[in-house]
Amino acid sequence: MKRIASFILSGLLLAGCATKEQTAPVSTLDVESLRDSVDLNMDITGLSLSDLRILENVFLAQKGYPFEDSYIRSIYQSTTWYDSLMWAFSENEDYYDQNSGYWGGERNEELSYREEYYNSIKPEIIAYTDEQRAFVNRVRQREDELRKRNFKSGNEDDKVNVANIVNPALLKEPDLRLWDYLGHHGFAIVPAQHQQLFHVYEQNDYHEFPAFVTTDLYLQLYHLYFDCMLREVEQEKFMPLLKEFCEEARKKVSTENDDPTEQWLSTYFTVANALLNGRLATTDETAQTEYEKVMKSEDDMSEFMGYTDAMFNYSLFRPRGHYTRNETLGRYFRTMMWLQTVPFQTDKEEDMKKALLLAQLIGRDTKMTKLYQALTEPMTYLMGQPDDVSILQVWQLHQQEPDFRKLCKKVDEIAEKQTRIRPKFLRTGRNKVRLMPQRYQPDAEVLQEMVDYDSNTTKREVPKGLDVFAAMGVSAAEKILLDELNEPDRWSKYTSNLKRMKKRMNEIKWEENAATQWMSALKTVIDKPQHAPYFMLSPEWDKKSLNAMLGSWTELKHDAILYAKQPMGAECGGAGPPDPIVKGYVEPNVKFWQKAIDLLKENQKILRTHNLLTEKIATANERLTEEAEFLLAISKKELRGEVLKDVEYDELEYIGAKFENMSLELLRDSEHELWDWEAIQGPDRKVALVADVYTANADNNPNKSILYEAVGDADEIYVVVEIGGYLWLTRGAVFSYREFQRSIDDQRLNDEEWQEYLERHPRSGVPEWMTPVTVPLEKTPVDNESVFYSTGC
C-alpha cells in the first residue's frame, strides 16, 4: 500500500521555461478537500488538462472506486480519505456481479482478470446524478478543447505543448530545463549513472512511471546474448579443440631435427601450448622470451618473428572484452591471438618455408585438418572471412602448384587481392600468411581509410565511429561530420575518401556473417516508419538513434575484439482490487524489430549447423525472439493509432524485470546461482565497456595514440508521447556512447579499468554532437515516490 501523503497539487510549481514564456503544467487543485463536496459551478477554464482529468473522476473517487489509471489512483491515494474508501469498495460484495468470471463464474478467455474485475462492477454502483453528469460532461468538453492544442504550430520554436502533459506530478521538483527540452524536441536525454539499462525500467515499475521502451534496451540484451554465446562456445567447444590441436601439432614437429624450419615451428607451438596452459615447461630460451613478451603485452622487437626493424604489436595480447572474466578465457585469448597474428611474410623465403611445412603438417593429416576446420569455419560464419591468407589456403594452393617459387608467387598474388586491412606504412612484408588469420569486417576498412596518411603531418590522425555509418549511407551521420564537425575543413580529402568508402560499403554482402548482420540491423535503427510519431521525425531524434547505433556497434567491437582484425596506421500483488494500468510506449521502429527477429534466426541457424547450439543459448534465443515479436506487434499497433490491451501495458510495465531475468540466465553457470543483479560480480555488473578499434601509429602522426570506442553508464530519456489523444510523459534508457584517444604508450584499456575511470570521470568521452539533445542537469530528476509507488511484482 502506498504511503499516505497530504498531497496538494498546487505545491507543484512547474513554472515556465527560462528561454520563453511557456506554460508548463501548473495545478491549482487541493485534492484533499474534494472528499465531501465539489463546487459544480466552479470556473474550470484555468485548470490544466492534468487537473481536469483528476476532477473528471472526483465522484468515483468519493465512492472509493479503484481506478484503472495508475496516475489517477495514485493522486487520490495520496489523500487521507481515498484509500480506506477504495478498500471498502473492493470488499463490498453487493457492488459486484458474483456470477462474473472474476468472482468464480464462467471466464471469458479473451479478457484479462483485470478486465473481468471491472466488468463485474454493477453499473448502478458507479452511476452519476444528473448534476454530477452535467459537471463531468462540462469537464470533458474542456478536455477536448485543450487536447486540440497538444502540439504547437509549425512556425513556433516549441513542438509540444507541455502544459497538456497529463502526468506531470511523477517528477518531484523537476528542473525547468527538462521541460524546455521536452517542449522543443518532444524528448530529452538526461545524464544518469545506471549500472544497466533495465534498471531504469524497474524504477519505472516501482514508481508507476510510463515506460518508453527503446531500441537501446533490446540492443544491450542482444549484446549480452551474443557475448555469452561466444563465451560458452569458446569455453565448452573451442577450448578443448584448441588444446587438442596445439598438442597434436607440437608432437608432430621434430625437436631432434637440426632443420631450422622445424625448430622454429617447434618453438611456435611450444609458446602456443604454454599460453594455453598458463605455464611454460621448457628450456627453450626463444620460447621463454616470446612467452614473457606476450604476457607483458608491450610492443617490442621480435627476432623470432623477424621484427628486427619494427615493433611487433604485443600489446594486442592483453586480454580485453569478455576475456578478462576468468582465467580460462584469458588463456584462450592469448593463445588464439598468437595463432592469429604471428606472420609468415610472403616475400621472405624462410617464412614461406615455415608456412609450407605448417600447411603440410595440417593438410596431410585428416585429424589435424578436421580440428583446424572445427575451429575456423564456425568463426567465418560468426565473424567473417580471414583477411590474410590462411595456412589451409596455402595447402590447397600447394596441391595445385607443387613448385615452391611458383607457389610463393601465387600466395602473394592472392594475398594482394584478399587482404584489405594492412598498415599504410610498412616496415615488414606487404603480404602475410597466418595460421588462423583475424577476420575482415567492413567497419575496420572504413576506420583505416578515413585517416590522412598523405600530409607531412596528418590532418586527421584518427577516424570516428560516425565515419562507419556515414559510409554505410546513414545521411544523419554524414551531416554531423560535414556540417557540425566540419571534417572537410580539417582535411581536404575527407569528402572524396568518404565517397570512396560509401561505394565500397555498397559492395558488401551484409548477410554473409553474424557480425555484418548485426551491423546491417543497426542501420535500421534510424529508420522512420510510415505514420511515425512526431518526435521521430526530427533531426534531433536522429542523434538519439545514432547514439544507439554507435553504442551497439561499440558492443560488437567489444565482443569481436579477439577475432576482428584491427586497422592501424601503422535486470504480488495480494488481495483487493487489481493493480492499476500504467501506460507505456515502444519506440515504433518496425524495420528494426523485424531485423532483430531475422538476426536471431540466422544466429540459431549458424550455431545449429556447426553443432554449437547449447540448451542455454537456444533458450535465450527463443526468449529474445518472443520479446522482439511482442515489441514489433506493439509498434505496429502504435503506428495504426490503436489502443493497447491491458495485458500489453502490463508487459511493458514489467519489461525491466524481464530483461534482468534474461540477463541473469545468460550470465548464470553451473557453479553460480544468480537470483538478482546484486549477485553479479565483476565488470558484467555494469553496461559500461570499452574496445580499442584503431592504432594511430602512422609515420606522419607525431601524436601516436589508440582510438577507443566505449559505452558509459546508462542515461535516461524522457519522451512525450500521445496515447488516446492525451500527452504522457514516459521514460526509458539509452546508451551513453563514448569515443576518446589514449597514448599508444599506455596499456590497452580493459572493461575493469574503464569502469573504474568512469567513477572519477563519469562523462568522459561524450561526443559534442550529442549536446543539443542532452539536458545539462547537475542531478538526475527525482521521482515523486511519496505519491507514485508500486510494490512491484
From TrEMBL:
Pfam families linked: DUF3160 (PF11369)
Membrane-crossing segments per the record: none
Top-level taxon of the source organism: Bacteria
SMART domains per record: DUF3160
InterPro entries (alphabetical): DUF3160, YARHG_sf
Protein name, as recorded: YARHG domain-containing protein
Source organism: Prevotella communis
